[in-house]
Structures are given as structure tokens and as C-alpha cells.
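Milestone M4 deliverable, item 7.
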Amino acid sequence: MRESEARFRHMADSAPALIWMTDAEGEVIFANMHYGHMFGLPASEILGRGWEAIVLPEDLNRHYAAFLEAFHARAPFRTETHVRDRAGQVRWLRCEGVPRMDDAGRFLGYTGCNVDITETRLAAEELERRVAERTAELMAVEETLRQAQKMEAVGQLTGGIAHDFNNMLQGVTGGLVMARRRVTAGLTGEALRYLDAVRDAAGLTRRLLSFARRQPLEPKQIDTDGLVAGLADLIRRTVGPGIAVDLQLRGGAGRVLCDPNELESALLNLCINARDAMPEGGQLTIGTEDLRLSAADIPDGAATPGLYVVLSVVDTGTGMPPEVIERVFEPFFTTKPVGQGTGLGLSQVWSFARQSGGLVRIESAPGRGTTVRLLLPLHADVVGRPAAEPSEPEGVGKVGMVLLVDDEHAARGPAADRLRELGHTVLEARDGPEALRILATTRPDLLVTDVGLPNGMNGRQLAEAARKGIPGLPVLFITGYAGTSLPSGAEVIDKPFELDVLVRRVRAVLEAGQRRRQSDDGA
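Output delivered:
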């Protein structure tokens, strides 16, 4: 027995690992000499509850909890923990032990081995760091590609509608001249029909800006029929007079949940592709329908079985052979001549559909045209169209002093006049420095500022400076382009906007500020 014990101790002390044993009560009764090498402690000091001398305090409770859970179940024990070696360096140990039984099956304790895995853990953490960096880089590249694809489509749109858009602008300028003449002559009723052209141009401009704007995905419940109908005029101008556009909308209840700007982008790109496939003209049919997909309809498991809204774009163009169809969703793959496309359109449509929990399917053959179907999950619990915003503000509501900052008098003047009509006191400034001079002697209830301002201070910087002098000052930002990042949760209204939309937003921000002040006073 002495020879056997000596051989065991010799082997245990020679092993480049921490070997230990406990008794049936869980107390350490053996520790090999490697403990002395690693921790500078005699093995005898590890006996009993010597773990407390080497395990870092923040890991000790977790370490004991893992051991006691295994101990009470008489199950194998395994955990990883931090310790501090004789040089004071923090190391990682993987600790493993197995129950020890006698011939009668009585539990005698644990025999275990701890291995230094510090280098492995450091390597894994470094790998995770590099993977995170690489993922961030890839996401940045993906966003760059997304924006490049959008701007390519903007270029296509610009070429397609430039003529009609210029005609519309001519109608606007002429209409304003005639409206002014009618008002001067006291014929205000006749002036209204000339002003309708201004609203039409604003709607087209708004769609172009929202399509080109850089912004994160913001899923919302969308009525696909309403979205398609709202884009119909823009699509007709884009594809040109040689292509007939037919809408076949389902007229059903229920909505889809996705980013409306991305859905518009996807539809416009599909229509541009269809236009390019019909250089001699043809028929473009845009339809919507409800469809139920079973698990058998989704063999690759790329989506969830259930009800879907199908948005289809059908053209009578040249069509595509099977070898092209197999590659159409690959980034940068294009059959267009050099300089006429980046090959990002359909890949972005595919990516958008997958991010929205949907699918894209394509059917085509040479000489028989192409059908692209975008399938998005149906949210049938939301029925009908949202209530339209009232054309006029309901009541005056909370009024207060508003500082309105915009360098364009044509934008600032009408907004200020409309706010004054409803009882607000409005102070006007053309840029940040002028606004700060006003704020030095006045405490408005609300700051309404354009984001893009001249003379070295943008709207965000103005808001930050204003809140230093007036803590908690409510701010409503106005922007025609989301190129400047704004604080999370900022109140924003996009140009162009209806004046009464501005009125409602001003009233809501003023009332929210009043509630916060009352809450603070009550506290």
C-alpha cells in the first residue's frame, strides 16, 4: 500500500496539472505539488477549504455553487473560474471532478483535475473581438451598398421624371402668379384652384426625399394597397409613356409589418427593372393578393407558414433564361451594360424581404416576361385604414412662446404666421447665433429649429447650447434631409410638411413639456 501510494503521489506530483481529491464531506484531502509551482503555496495549505486562498472573490460563490450542485447529486463536476497565480497574474482554470466510490457503492468523495486554459480563453476572446470588428465592418459595408443602390435608383428616377417634374414646377410657378393676381383682385375662391399644384409638387418631392434618405429600418404596419396606389403616379412617370401601368389591388383587410421606405424602395426598383426589360414599351402590372403558405410551400424553412400579402410586379419584357434567374439575387450580378447598373437592386429586395420575415419569388422565361412576387407576413388583426389626421387642429390647445429658427424665410414665414393665428407668441431667427442672442434675454416654451443651418452652427448644436441656459427646454427639429444625426428619441418633423401637421406637433410637445414640469413640481 505504501508503494502504491508512493507511485500515485509521484505520478500526481509529476503531472503538469492541478490534481486534487476530496473526502465524502467535500473537504480537500489531497493536492499535488503543482499547486506550489503555480500559486507559491505548499500543497498542505490547499487542504480543507483552501480554494478560498486562490479563487478570486468575485468567482468564489459561483465556484462553490457549481461544486455543491454536483456534490449533492453525486454527479460529475465541471466549471471554469478565475484564480491569481504566484506572480499576481489572473489565470483561467477549467476544473473537473468525478465521484469516487468504494466496492460497495458508497460515496467517498471526488477526484479531480484543474487545467490552466488562460491562453485558450485569451485566444478565444481575441477571436470574438476580431469577429465583432469584422461584423461591424460588414454591416457598415452593407449600409454603404444599400445607400449606393438607393442612389442608383434615385438617378434612374431623376432621368425618368425630369421632364414631367419640370412641367409640374412650371405649373407651380405659373399657378402662384395667377393665385396672387386673383387674391389681389379679391377673387380668393378662384385662387384656390391654382394652389392645388403646389401641394401636388410637395407630395412628389416628399416621396423622392424619403426614398433617398439615409435612415435605419423602422418597421410599421402598412396598408400595401394604399402604398401602391400612392406610388402609382411616381411609377408611371418613372417608366415613361411607352409602358402602360395597371394596378390590380386586393382591397383586403390586414397589413404588413415592415419599413415603409424600404418597401417603396423595393417596389420602385422592381418597376425600374421591368422598365429596362421593355425598351420598346409594354405592359406593367402591379398587384396585391392574400396567400396562405404551408410548411410544404417553404421547403427551405426561410419563413413561417401562415397568411401573406403578395406584392407582384409583372412585365411583358424580354424575360430571363434559367441560368440568369439562378443568380439574380447575387450582389453585383447584373445583365445591364457597364455603367447602367450596380447589380444591387434585386439583392437589396431579397435582403429586405428576409429582414421583414418574408420571401421573394421570381418567374421568367425568354420572350415571356418576368414576374417578381414579394411575400410579406399578413397582420390580419389590424383591420381597415388608419383614421386620417384632421385637416384642421382640434381646438387651440396649449399655447406658448415658440422660437422658430430657419434660414429660409419662405419656409419660416408661413409657419410662424400659422402658429400666431392659433395664439402662439413666435420669435424668429435665421441661424444659430441669432437664436442664441434671443435666448440670452428670453425664455421660450419651445425651440423649433431646422437641422441644417448656416454660419457654423447646425440645429443639434443650437439645441445643446440652448438647453445649457434653459435646462429641459423642449425642442422640435425640422429637417429636409437626415444627414445630421439627432439624439435618440428626438422630436422630428420632415420637410415638406402641412402647416397644420406642424401645429399639432408643436401643441403635443408643449403639452408634454407642461406635464413634465407639473410632475417635477409634484415630486
